[in-house]
Design goal:
Elements lengths: L1 H11 L3 H19 L12 H8 L24 H53 L2 H13 L6 H21 L2 E3 L13 E7 L9 E6 L2 E3 L2 E4 L1 E6 L1
Parallel strand pairs: 2-6
Antiparallel strand pairs: 1-4, 3-6, 4-5
Length: 232
């Protein structure tokens, strides 16, 4: 029976190689769990891609590649770079000159427009003020037609006539004149206002028969047209 005991002793002997392999497999599994493999999209960049990023020829970019003529000291500029700087300066000067000329033209137009508007405002104010005297002139003209020429009333009639002449002199001093309108004169719609058209044996069509109310003009501007009767 001794062989049986030897066989049993051999089975019970430790097997170091097998245990080492088991320990190695366990360690590999733990390493995989702790450090999972990186995804395919997170692979390290290839040397070719790095070369493309740095330049088409794989050469690393240097600060001198992006340096312009403006950053180079004047004593190191070449003739071509000086010509480039001169062309850029001339273009900038022409652009600024054009802007200044445009601004000057806009300012001159603004001054002319403002002056014209102010003159128009003054003219309208003066015309409105002068027109307030016309009803007074109408009343004085009617009074002069009915004033006594002889007797006791002749003295104060002359006073009313003097007031009328003074008012007329004031208006004439402001370049205000009476619009011409006389019987037999041709009707002009720019200066006359026809209040009635009637047949008349002594006057042809479109001729003034009589003046109902005088009109006034200020220079070339009509402040009030003359009211007239016109033949048809």
């Amino acid at each position: 029976m001794p062989p049986v005991n030897e066989q049993q002793s051999e089975d019970t002997k430790p097997r170091p190689d097998r245990e080492k392999r088991s320990d190695s497999m366990i360690e590999q599994k733990e390493s995989v769990l702790q450090h999972p493999p990186e995804a395919e999209g997170e692979q390290e960049p290839s040397p070719t891609a790095s070369a493309d990023d740095n330049g088409s020829d794989g050469r690393e970019a240097t600060p001198d590649d992006g340096e312009t003529a403006a950053e180079i000291p004047p004593e190191e500029l070449t003739t071509g770079q000086w010509l480039e700087k001169l062309a850029a300066t001339e273009a900038l000067a022409a652009e600024r000159l054009e802007g200044q000329q445009r601004s000057l033209a806009d300012f001159q137009n603004y001054k002319r427009r403002t002056s014209r508007d102010m003159q128009l405002v003054r003219q309208n104010a003066a015309a409105s003020l002068l027109a307030n005297f016309f009803p007074i002139m109408d009343d004085l003209s009617l009074a002069l037609e009915s004033l006594p020429i002889t007797g006791d009333g002749a003295a104060w009639s002359e006073g009313v006539n003097m007031i009328h002449r003074k008012l007329m002199s004031v208006l004439e001093g402001e370049d205000v004149a009476v619009i011409e309108a006389e019987p037999g004169q041709e009707f002009d719609p720019h200066f006359h206002e026809a209040i009635v058209q009637e047949e008349h044996d002594d006057y042809d069509s479109d001729l003034i028969i009589a003046v109902v109310r005088p009109g006034y003009r200020w220079g070339e501007r009509v402040l009030r047209p003359a009211q007239v009767r016109v033949a048809k």
